[in-house]
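Researcher: Here's a chain I'd like modeled. Treat it as a single chain, no partners, no ligands.
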Amino acid sequence: MQRERELPHTPLLFLIALAFGVAFSLANTANGDYLIGLGSYDMTGPAADVNMMGYAQMEQVTAGVHFRLRARAFIVAEDSQGPRFAFVNLDAGMASQLVTIKVLERLKARYGNVYTEENLAISGTHTHAGPGGYLQYVIYSVTSLGFVQQSFDAIVNAIELSIVQAHKNLRPGAIFINQGDVVNAGINRSPSAYLFNPPEERARYPTNIDTGMTLLKFVDGQSGKSRGAFSWFATHGTSMSFNNKLISGDNKGAAARFFEDWFRFNNSKPSQITITKTISSESKLIETAKRFKATGGQPCEKTSSQNSKVRKNNGSLFVGAFCQSNVGDVSPNVLGAFCTDSGKPCDFNHSSCHGNDQLCVGRGPGYPNEILSTRIIGERQFQKAIDLFESAREKLSGKIDYRHVYLNFTNLEVQLQGNKVVKTCPAALGPGFAAGTTDGPGAFGFQQGDTEINEFWKRLRDILKEPSKQQVECQKPKNVLLSTGEMFKPYQWAPSILPIQILRIGKLVILSVPGEFTTMAGRRLREAVKETLISKGKGEFDTDTQVVIAGLTNTYSQYIATFEEYKQQRYEAASTLYGPYTLSAYIQEFNKLATAMATGEKPKSNGLSPPDLSSVQLKLLSPPFPDATPPGTKFGDIKQDINKGSFAKGENVSAIFWSGSPRNDLLTEGTFAVVEMLQGNHWIPAYDDDDFSLFFKWGMDEFSLHGLATVEWEIPKDAISGVYRLRHYGASKKLPTSPNEYFTGASSSFAVS
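Model: Modeled as a single isolated chain. Structure tokens:
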């Protein structure tokens, strides 16, 4: 009997068992089982003095935190040695080529060639409320006063560590897919341009925006428990206006917050959800507060703060991401655009009022409260995601695959129907770009749809760079306001070499695009790629193949409008950098990638790669002033305490503390603000600056120029009655080169009833 027990260890049976195991693994893959990993990490950048990326408004600089930003990642692989890819969704305006370059360098140092430019996608949600200064081309860093190292590092670190988490918790699981329509979370902000598309094409679609959401549900293969969900849906991250100065993930970041909290807090139904955290879920934050107090606020807080957040992913927590799609002409300001002086609707063709673009502003569903609008649009996406998540039954199966290529978009030959050959152009912006949009009006004196430039602006343009005759002809009917593709001082103003990428999980195909496709442009691209996959795939793809667009991915090159929309030269067309045939070029080149994927071939190397401009970046943002407090006070002391001893649910309570600059320490995976509840003899943290109800606001005392931190709590209607206080955490520096000195302070207690 003993000999029989040892039989499985003989070489022959071992090889048979190994072969059986490999076959079993391949069978599992065919049935929809993959290796799946998920990760999430805090990427909140400097909460003071840094220009926000999106609206290009010099005066819009960070001054606090609405809620924290995160990088959320998923990795999917056929098996431990087989094909895989990683997709990272950022609470950021867009991806950055330089960020991608530096992340790949770090991943190569960790994992060798496991993750490369071919199988890594980094996508932005397009919030307009995150710190800027992390892109490498001049046009995207003018308002941020150049490159901001702290912004850049926060994003790169978060991407790397979210991928590290996902890589570490790779384990067998299944992926389910579902689709549905999101109601009233977007409108077309350029409807007159949309009408330029052919009537027969428009007749194929019920609306002038894409309302569809595609959701992936990740399920653990052993426990059967859900591990996460990623969805794609098109609406702009402009619920927060250009007047906002609080760091915020906008509506998609809010949707992710709501989704993750819903899952972690007992899978409540959407109608029953408590948007804010409960006391019992804060054990890690409690421990942080205890350590901070026990050490007198010494630098170990920085270490402990990295363990303070219940949302930190440890392999068992849920990661929910709301990714961007073909968002170019889709606004979350669903009430429409109105004139601020008269209250009447704006001019239909130009989105202006009496010729003034600055008076025409879109209104969100919570108007005039932009934070309420952010919540509402976030909740509408969140609620649909819950519906799709709970009803997802279709299991993905089949290959994991990917294709990637770099292209020089400034001089691409494009073959149109009838064998007509045209070319793309060096990047350029038209006057409609300067007009801005109804989400964020631009400079006075411009209107969307403008094709003429007055003499003053022409002269100013020519001082920077007069466009070449070839450029003027190539960009028509766009009149060139800024020929960014021909501007190279002090370094390159706009990207020329762009990545395009296709990722595949079975019959789901993700198109990674480095810009903002309009609704109809995105439809054309998806349909063309799907048709190519079906016609070239020899039965491997069919009409059930689902194609989604992941917008603002891997780098950023502004907008892509259709050829017809380009004629009107509204904002999206004026910001279509590479001329009227930009979309045609994308469709042609994505079709080549799709053909390579369908036939199992690899694209031929063209030797192109984007530049790394990190060594020439201008950095004009000054460091924060040395921190100090008024005589007789210290950091963390109260300047203005709460104004009464008892508050009702729904009321606001706030306190102001003498503080140091938030740029001294970002308190990554930590918090600047806490609401503490008294339980017995202990103060227990209940809410932090990642909650929708708690705001951390930063500013300078106008008389003494000392730093002030305001902690403001909108008491939730479902808050537990009891005794509370507000607490602030921070760090100060005596000089820019001095070490951080950590501190904390608390308000007086108050009752909530």
